[in-house]
Design a protein that fits this description.
By secondary structure, this protein is of the alpha/beta class. It folds into two domains: 85 residues, DNA primase DNAg catalytic core, N-terminal domain (Alpha-Beta Complex); 110 residues, Dna Topoisomerase Vi A Subunit, Chain: A, domain 2, CATH 3.40.1360.10. It is 31% helix and 16% strand. The chain is built from seven helices and eight strands. Strands 1-2-3-4 form a four-stranded antiparallel sheet, with helices on one face. Strand 5, helix 4 and strand 6 form a beta-alpha-beta unit. It starts with a helix and ends in a 6-residue tail after the last helix. The model has no long low-confidence stretch (mean pLDDT 93).
Length: 215
Amino acid sequence: MHSQEQLKSQLAAANHYAENLNEECELWLSERGISRSVAQKFSLGTVTDAIPGHEHHEGWISIPYITALGLCVGFKFRRIDEGKPKYGSPAGQKSHLYNVNDVLERSRIIAICEGEFDTIICSGVLGIPAIGVPGVAAWKNHYPKLFNGFDEVLVLGDNDLKEDGSNPGAEFSRRVAGDLLNTRVVELPAGMDLNDFYLAKGLQDTRIQLGIKDV
């Protein structure tokens, strides 16, 4: 559980990072189809004057997990250079659903995406309400009840076949779809996630790929 002081500190940090989104991070986001206005909607920022626990991610993109109550319950960070690992998060942080506010949208359809940036593209750019799950291991048994009010649930895992023959994205889609009613798994071309497909094909073709006419 988060203490009230921790929640306040995290929200203040999220707001500070968002206010300090720098040109390098803004350019990195724009090259992935995420405009400044969309970045602002999701409070994306640059880790600047990092709070304790975030020091190793100075200069990285900040992706805060903000709830419907306006609480910041966690962070993911994305580096913009070619170093590894690409992503990071504070040590000991528990997993949460990303962009959980979208379950409150009045819509007949919602998407469950693998990862934050696919969720941002789906919700903020394509206009399809979307929730993000940071990998199959983060899917919890009580999550399905959140999606009971929707006519259709799209499941959007990455199509990332590995050299050993495994496909974590396909595993993610199978796990999530197996726990829900009225699901439709959307298959993307080999080696692509939703963000890749959107950059390659554009808005209209991406919506067609998802089988979307309206929301």
